[in-house]
Amino acid sequence: QIQGMPYGNCLLLSDGPINNSTGIPFFYVTPKDNTVTDLLKDPMASLTLPEADGNFCRRNVIDPEDPRCARLTLTGQMVTVPPEEIEFAKQAMFSRHPVVRKWPRSYEWFFMKMNIEHIWLQSWYGEVSPIAVEE
What we know:
The chain is of the alpha+beta class. Helix content is 18%, strand content 30%. It has helices at residues 34-41, 55-59, 86-96; strands at residues 13-14, 26-29, 44-50, 71-80, 110-122, 128-131.
């Protein structure tokens, strides 16, 4: 009933091992997830990251979803990680989310990443600033 409509989901992500963050979001996904099925048909996606770990919200005891807490939105194409990057994707995901090693293998897990095309930073009520991808 929602085919062709935007669909949101929460996925584990990592941009690299703790000592080697790249800024490129990697995901460990299964084709059994409707989100992944949709992305394989139409790879355009957006990812919003809240300021959950920032000092402002924590220091002022403000809910991370409050508009005063910054959020970063990335948009781009979701692609299957090529063979030459699989080992890095494994290190990235498994070092930050060790539990994924125990996920059922029958779910045909594989790695995807976002090729970022646009970045927006919302740092206050409705105020949005574009950021160059190179930054």
